[in-house]
Structures are given as structure tokens and as C-alpha cells.
Amino acid sequence: MAMAMATVDVTVMGAGIFGLAVAWACLQRGARVQVIDPAGPGAGASGGIVGALAPHVPEQWNAKKAFQLESLLMARDYWALVVEAGGGDPGYARTGRLQPLADAAAVDLARRRIAGAEAHWQGLAVWHVTDAASHVGWAPASGTGLYVFDSLSARIHPRRAVAALAAAIVARGGVLRDQGPEQGAVVWATGHAGLCAAGLGGGVKGQAALLRHDAAAAPQLFVDGLHIVPHADGTVAIGSTSERDWDRPDSTDAALDTLIARASSACPALAGAPVIERWAGVRPRARSRAPLLCAWPGRPGHFIANGGFKIGFGVAPLAGEVMADLVLAGRDRIPADFKPPLP
Known about the structure:
Elements: E1 10-13, H1 17-28, E2 33-36, E3 52-53, H2 63-86, E4 97-100, H3 104-120, E5 127-130, E6 147-150, E7 154-155, H4 158-171, E8 175-177, E9 185-188, H5 191-198, E10 201-212, E11 220-223, E12 226-230, E13 235-239, H6 254-266, E14 275-286, E15 292-295, E16 302-306, H7 312-329
Helix pairs in contact: 1-4, 1-7, 2-4, 2-7
């Protein structure tokens, strides 16, 4: 860990993806920044293995979907700069996503959504219906022989991305500490425990697995709520469960075995692939389900960046930018839905 600075403009409490993204954005604006986390970078849900950066469907458009789109579109340059600064590899690649279409109704719905993508995705990504002929041996079975392919979806290796971002922060003069006094503006990015303590939400446990199988150039798959994400290192991530009740936050059980079996059934290429890691963690979920990015009501000089449930890595690049605007310049361009309701 780097030594503490004499003076700090911004203290970020929590070294998950939101905390590190805020710290990185503040550093880019010339602020002196420290990040404090007793457990170190990526110790919570951000140290996971799945990394599906996937958009919401392009219909019933709203501010949350527009925010996610902007962040997904900026991700390539964002992570390239992180690599350039710190030398770490986040495993980012925009390889797209395939989803099988089970019946004629699903095909009709998918085709109707093409117009939404054309209207909202600015011509920078596509959503179309395909026979997936170019992915024989990887594409899951489809009741119609057809699939949705979107070119906006990307992959990242969460654990490696957090390490890469932490390295970039240190390389640019930021400080990572396991403890220390709060100085300057304080951004609270303390995961599900922080949401619980503030009465703003809680957490949902997820279990995931990492399989040894090289499909690095293939698109990710989304099958009946299951994400199958090929990584660049010759592994494929499977995830995840959503559990509101649990005994231990970091334990895996038969629910994960079921997930692995479902993945092997959906994608026969994974049959027999060895499981090299089983992972579990608790993802922060605000009451509204949308991220919380805001000034902390009633606590001048304190801010909240939390609750990136299932979309945290996808929205992190833009979340960091808008929080830096708010903290350092008082400029608020954050969607109203990303703020807690007033008492």
C-alpha cells in the first residue's frame, strides 16, 4: 500500500468497482485522493468472476437505460486508459451476446425491439435476429433456430478489472489504505453493508463458477436468466444465483451445482469442462434497484456511490465521471432515479 498523503481532497470509503471508479475520475481531474478499505480492493462483490456487461432491452426507454448505454459505449476507451496508466489487464472485450429464441412469440418480440435499438443506440451498436450459423458448436439450442445478437454487450473479468483500476490509481498518485482518517469530501462506496447501515437497501447473494474452457473469441450467452461469459484467459464464467436469504455470504452449495448443470445442458461445448473455481458474494442492491449516486441527505460533504446491483461494472465508467462532477464541481447530471427518496 502507498503511504498516506499529507492533504486529501477526496476520501473514498470502499475499494469496490464504484469506489475505485470515483477515485479514478477524481484523480483524472487533478484531485488528491485516498481510498480506504480494511479488506483491500475487490474484497466484496466486485471481486467476482462473471463480468457480463450487457444492456437492458432497447424498449420502454428511461434515464437508467440511457445512463447504462452511455457508460457501455465509453467502456472501451475507459479501460484502455486504465491499462495504459497501470499496466493491469481487466479482460475487457466487446464480443457481443447471443440469446436463443424459444418460440414464434419470442421471435416477434425480438424483431419489434430492433426499432428500439435503432432509435436509442445511436447507430453505434446493433440488435438483430440471426441464425447464429457462425457460432456452431457454441450457440445453445433454440426452439426456433433463431437468436438475438447484440453487439453492445461486452465482457470483463471483475477481479482483474478491480486490480487494474487499483494499479492505475496508484500509478497516478492516488493512495490505497486499509485504514485512516476521513479527509476532504467523503464518498461512501461500502457495498451491501453500507446500504444496510444507512437504511437504503441491502444485498442479494450470488453464486458463480469458473470453468476451464477456451472460447475467448465467442460471444457471451444469455439463456433463461443464466449468463455464460467466455474470458480471454481460457476460462468461462457461469452465473449467477439470486438469493435474498443465506447462512454464509461466501459459501457455495447445490444451487451452484444446478447452475453448472444448466450451463452444460444449454451449451454442450461446456460438457465435461473442469470447474476451477466456485465463488459466492453479496451484491449491493438499493431499495429502488437503481444505483445510488448522490449527495448524502443531511450530511454535508458526504456522498453515496453504491447499489450497482448486476450492472455495477457496466455503469462504473460513467458513475465515476458524474460523481467526480458532483463532488469536485457541484455539477449534478445524475438521473433523479439514482437518488434516495426524500424522507
